[in-house]
Amino acid sequence: MKELELKYGCNPNQKPARIYSQGELPFEVLNGKPGYINFMDALNGWQLVRELKAATGLPAAASFKHVSPAGAAVGVALTDILKKIYWVDDLEGIDDSLLACAYARARGADRMSSFGDFAALSDTCDVTTAKFLSTLVSDGVIAPDYEPAALEILKAKRKGGYNIIKIEPRYEPEMKSPETKQIFGITFEQNRNDTIITPSLLENIPTRLKNLPDEAKTDLIISLITLKYTQSNSVCYAYGGQAIGIGAGQQSRIHCTRLAGDKADNWYLRQNPKVMGLKFLDSLKPPEKDNAIDLYTSDDCINVLADGQWQNIFSQKPEEFTSSERRSWLDTLSGVSLGSDAFFPFGDNIDRAAKSGVKYIAQPGGSVRDDHVIKTCNQYDMVMAFTGLRLFHH
Q1: How distant is the alpha carbon of residue 321 from its chain centre?
Q2: Could you check whether 2-167 and 179-269+330-386 share the same CATH topology?
Q3: Rounded to whole angstroms, how far apart are CA atoms 359 and 394?
Q4: Radius of gyration (Cα) for the chain, nearest Å?
Q5: pLDDT digits (tens, 9 = 90+) for 216-275
Q6: Which of 118, 205, 341, 344 lies at a 20 to 30 A Cα distance from 248?
Q7: Closest C-alpha to 243, from 388, 107, 380, 344
Q8: Other CB atoms closer than 10 Å to residue 255's CB: what's the count?
Q9: Are 259 and 338 in contact (CB under 8 A)?
Q10: Helix, coil or strand: residue 18
Q11: 141 strand-pairing partners
């Protein structure tokens, strides 16, 4: 049996702590000393990006925080607008690294939640991705390998303490070994959720409209694979090859849908010309700009626009971004895909999804109110697939 001693468990008072395997550990710690939660994020994140890469054929990345993804994406080239809102418009080599594009998307979807994340990469970490990671507040990274120069860049991060894990990409858990965990001295056991998510899950379409474009299928697959590794209840909005809003760990499905929708809205509001034209002080760092943008695009905008406040953030006082302006801008977003890890019990979830431009939905189905949910989708001209697959994750 191989084991690795950890700094502590979920909290500093939970000592000792370790991870172990009946066989060889399938990874190597190249730098730092990852903790209990770090490894939970790393191993869940690795599974997510490995499945995204297998499903799409594209490099994939995830930004994990507290055992749920804050963002996940595949390697699609970035537009000039996305480069700017993800703070990579001056990153050398970004146009030549689809892996860096994937992580920029994953990190940029919900920048507030990604602060202090654990990054997961499906492919060998290149220099461009390492340079981007070196500028961010991040706890660590897991990848199948690292270019030598990229490894040196990452080793210098956090005064030499940045957590770097190299995982064996061919590793598969022994199928005869179920997953176990203990709660209050009681051992729980179950088989791994090894279901492979493919477009075949999207063939049962009960709505009036039936057409799912290839781009929507890809986004729905991204959302479902993301949900497979997100603490339930969970809902994921996806667009253009990436998650744009993830609602995790909510007790109510509608609260999940609202939370994820609000995050998707924030992602799109960042692209408004009024927001992109903000004149920040040169001394502000990206996380400080993110905080300011989050307030500026909300009903709490007075917190950054009041006299005595804006001078600490902006070189020029911005005009207010009114609620009506925000709503008008959000109404221009369309073609968003949404996945749910369990059935929608009421049509109110569909009503909320429509406010964030959702056109395509994938959910298990099986509610006693399926007819009402289908009817609500038809009212919004949405296409909805019943996957028949629940994706709870705890």
Answers
A1: 27
A2: yes
A3: 29
A4: 21
A5: 999 999 999 999 999 999 999 999 999 999 999 999 999 999 999 999 999 999 999 999
A6: 205
A7: 107
A8: 15
A9: no
A10: strand
A11: 119, 164
Query: What gap in Å lies between CA 196 and CA 31, rounded to an integer?
Result: 32
H/E stretch holding 175: none
37, two tokens:
């939660």
Quote the CA–CA distance of 10 and 338 in Å, as a whole number: 31
Q: What confidence score (pLDDT) does residue 1 get? A: 53
Q: Any idea which residues carry the catalytic annotation?
A: 65-66, 233, 394
**Under CATH, which architecture does the 179-269+330-386 domain have?**
3-Layer(aba) Sandwich (3.40)
Distance CA 139, CA 162 (A): 7
Per CATH, is 2-167 categorized as 3.40.140.20? yes
Residue pair 329/268 in contact (Cβ under 8 Å)? The answer is yes
Q: How far apart are CA 372 and CA 350, in angstroms?
A: 10
**Encoding tokens for residue 22?**
């009946």
Query: Which one-letter amino acid corresponds to residue 8?
Result: Y
Q: Is there a contact between 163 and 183 (Cβ–Cβ < 8 Å)?
A: no
Alpha-carbon distance of 161 to 54, in angstroms, equals 32
132 SS3 class? helix
